[in-house]
Every structure is written in C-alpha cells, then in structure tokens.
Amino acid sequence: MPTIESNDIKVEIAAQGAELQRITDKRTGVEYMWNADPAYWAKHSPILFPIVGSLKDNTYLYEGIPYNLPRHGFAREMEFQLYQQSGHGLTFKLSSNEATLTRYPFPFELYIEYLVAGPVLSVSYRVVNIGEKSMYFSIGGHPAFKVPIFEGDTYTDYTLEFNQFENAGRWLLDNGLLENGTVPLLENTDQLPLRKELFEADAIVFKKLSSTKVRLIQERTGKGFEFDFNGFPYLGIWAAKGADFVCIEPWCGIADNVDSNQQLVEKEGINELGAGGLFERTWKFAVID
Q1: pLDDT mean over 232-253
Q2: How far is Cα 217 from Cα 222, in angstroms, rounded to an integer?
Q3: Which residues fall within 8 angstroms of residue 139, CB to CB, at 6 or more apart?
Q4: Which H or E element spans position 101?
Q5: pLDDT tens readout for residues 50-87
Q6: Residue by residue, what is the 3-state secondary structure of the chain?
Q7: Are the C-beta atoms of 222 and 288 separated by less than 8 Å?
Q8: Would the pTM of this model clear 0.90, i.e. be above it?
Q9: Is residue 142 within 8 Å of 18, Cβ to Cβ?
Q10: Architecture of the CATH domain 3-288
Q11: Left if phi > 0, otherwise alpha if psi is -120 to 50, otherwise beta: which for 222?
C-alpha cells in the first residue's frame, strides 16, 4: 500500500478509491483513523464525486435526459492510477471513461493529492474539465476518525471545538434527502460534545458555518487533532449507530432536498466548471500535542 511520512506522522493510502487508510503518529504510535470494522461501516475515508450525498430517487436530469448515480457518486468504488509519488507526497488520478460517461456525461480528470509536512496531512482535490462544455459536479471528503483516540478514554470524553462561536441549526435528513428546515444545535457556542445519540437520526449537516477549522480533542488534556475545512461551504458530522468513530466531512456540494426538481444545473451546491477549467480544494489534518 502506498505510504508517505514525515518525521512526525506516517500515512497509508489505497489505490482503490484513492482512499486514506491510516494516519499514525510516529512519536507515540497513536492511530487516528477508524479501522473500517464491517460490522459498523467498512470504509476509512471515501472520496465523494461527482455528487455528495443522495439524489432524489438516485436520479438527476441533464439536458432532459435522466441519469442514475448512487449515494456519493462512483469515485469511491473505482481504481485510481498512482500518478506521482515522492517520500512526502502521493497523487492519484481518475479519468472519465465509457462506463462513467453513461452515468455522468462529462469528460474529466480527478486528482487526489496527499502531502505530509511535520504533523500535518494535506489532502487536495483537483477536478479538470477536459470536455468542450461546462461540467457540473460536487466533491467532498468523508474521513472517519476513531473515538476514543487514546487508550482508557470513552466516547463522551471527546468534544468537537470550532474556531468560531456558532449559531447554527442542524439540517435534518429524510432517507438521505435534506428536509426544509433546521433544528437548534449550536447556540452561541464553539463546543459540540460527542455522544453517540447525536447520530441516531443520520448525519449532522451544517451550511456555511463561520468556522474554518474544528478540533477533535480529549476534553481533559486538549490532545487530539485539528481539521481545517476552509473553502468547503458545507460540513457533515456523522457516525454509524453505536460505532466508535466520527466522520468530519468537508463538502463542496450537498444532498438533494426532498422537494428537488432533480435538474443538475439547478442543484444546491453544484459547481460549474468551464471547458478546460481547474477546480481545487484542500483540507488539512494536524496532530495536536
């Protein structure tokens, strides 16, 4: 499995789905990623492309033609090419082909770059439109981090700490589709204490938070990691029911609304990229000592 490392962390990535597998603190031996236990959720960190979340009836319309895509798109199930490699960086590439064009009629190249420097992992998504007209897409991450991180802790010893005070409701999901309103969750606070009951009604979905970073920390010591999602207008927080992990999901795109007209070019959060254009976003993980 391709591996990169700095003096502080070691990172492993699979070519299948260009999926991040492990982040290990070389100084302490602490592992940060969920182990993909199939009894709960058999993934570590899938790439969400060319949609994020669910489509209404798993269908979108483009130029009057219906197309079907599964939840979160197809990139996470595809084999990526190892495009570039160095001791500190890896880049994977996925290109459109006959199979993708039957479900998503846009020629593209998708590059996923992993880069380590000190205790920081940067993950960059680059979408290139190699077609002759605008393409419409969403993209996002779905990394799952184990909770508790440190031995002897429990799930409720941890909290999510945002870098701004927030007044943000939680957008609810109905069978994977966004409902039309929110319920209160963050009320003039930068803290979201973790408890498994938070995820009994599926993911927590935020739109356009003031924060650009969130820390997952052990409340007593402040140790854990910082997650930088600057440039991603939507954020999902999710865990499988009863599982010992939490996903922090930076999204450029979002699930369909229950009242969606299914028109791709009118979809909330859709990104339009002109012919020959480049779209790039980066999220970062950093160990907190």
Answers
A1: 98
A2: 5
A3: 47, 48, 49, 50, 52, 125, 127, 251, 252, 253, 271, 279, 281
A4: helix 98-103
A5: 999 999 999 999 999 999 999 999 999 999 999 999 88
A6: CCEEECCCEEEEEECECCEEEEEEECCCCCECECCCCCCCCCCCCCEEECCCCCCHHHEEEECCEEEECCCCECHHHCECEEEEECCCEEEEEEECCHHHHHHCCCCEEEEEEEEEECCEEEEEEEEEECCCCCEEECEEECCEEECCCCCCCCHHHEEEEEEEEEEEEEEEEECCEEEEEEEEEEEEEEEEECCHHHHCCCCEEEECCCCCEEEEEECCCCCEEEEECCCCCEEEEECCCCCCEEEEEEEECCCCECCCCCEHHHCCCCEEECCCCEEEEEEEEEEEC
A7: yes
A8: yes
A9: no
A10: Distorted Sandwich (2.70)
A11: left
